[in-house]
Amino acid sequence: MKYSDIFSQIYFDLENRPDLGQVASYIPELKNVDPAMFGVHLTTVDNCEYSFGDSEVKFSIQSIAKVLSLTMAYTLEGENLWKRVGVEPSGTSFNSLVQLEHNKGIPRNPLINGGALVIADVLISHFENPKQELLNFIRLVSNNESIDFCERIQASEKETGFCNAALVNLMKSYGNIENDVEEVLDFYYNLCSIEMTCKELSRTFLYLANNGIVPATQQEIICPSMSKRINAIMQLCGFYDEAGEFSFKVGLPGKSGVGGGIIAIHPHKYSIAVWSPKLNLKGNSNKGIWFLESFTSALETSIF
Ligand code: GLN
Hints:
The protein has a single domain (3-298), classed as DD-peptidase/beta-lactamase superfamily (Beta-lactamase, 3-Layer(aba) Sandwich). The strands form 4 sheets. Strands 3-2-10-9-8 form a 5-stranded antiparallel beta sheet. Strands 1-11 form a two-stranded antiparallel ribbon. The longest helix has 14 residues, at 113-126. The chain is 44% helix and 12% strand. The two termini are 22 Å apart. By secondary structure, the chain is of the alpha+beta class. It is globular, with a radius of gyration of 18 Å. The chain has helices at 3-14, 65-77, 98-102, 113-126, 130-142, 151-160, 162-173, 181-192, 198-204, 224-237, 243-249, 286-299, and strands at 22-23, 39-44, 49-53, 59-60, 195-196, 213-214, 219-220, 254-256, 261-266, 270-275, 278-279. Helix 4 (113-126) packs across helix 7, helix 6 (151-160) crosses helix 8 and helix 7 (162-173) crosses helix 8 (181-192). The structure holds glutamine (GLN). Residues 62-63, 94-95, 113, 157, 164, 192, 257-258, 283 line the site of glutamine. The site of glutamine (GLN) has 11 residues, from loops.
């Protein structure tokens, strides 16, 4: 059976489940999405593509973009990066402050907000124009010049980003932020405002299924060992306090965003993007996780 046939079968099975969850509203602009949207796109390392549903509609990828900024910072800093951010699962929500004080301003991993803010600070310190450099990097990885920030989402998050401001100020007080806190927050909100379709997202993350090389262009983004490590971080930290559950149910490294997107990687095989805006209580796409659980169960393949 082709992947796209499996997609439609799983989707229609999911229709029998209760339509649980809420669209994120703490960033006001994110509320303006149709909650019924549902898209999937899978790209294999040998460039075969399969899709279903609203796979060519742009949405806010939010925290999924943290993996891309991490990749960029890792290429610049190498192993020194881990002096400022850990690689341990947090077991807490993405914007928790409690643990950060306990860990004296060193965030547990780069995929919670504290960690992504440190990565933002690293990138700002490296470049004259970090926003443009970030966009150039994402366009290179995605092999797509049309990828862009969304100013509406960026502005909306800035208006209500009090918790992120608290995180960055706390880290600054411990000496783990080099730049001006407002500059770090602005850069971080831009990062989170990146928009992609499932098709673009799946193609973008293929380098992590292919030892760090973009299959379409043969561009080496990172070496195989770095690719292994970023996959490991996604496996352990990609879903915050639901990372264990995602690993248990789906069995692939992945990353979610509060826009309802999820990317999951099967190293050496494929990358799959799913989008469904209604989130569970942990801030991860409800249907997205159900879908991926059914998908790897139907294929009977995962990394385990
Ligand atoms: N921009 C969001 C925030 O900082 C990202 C959170 C997410 O997608 N989990 O709150």
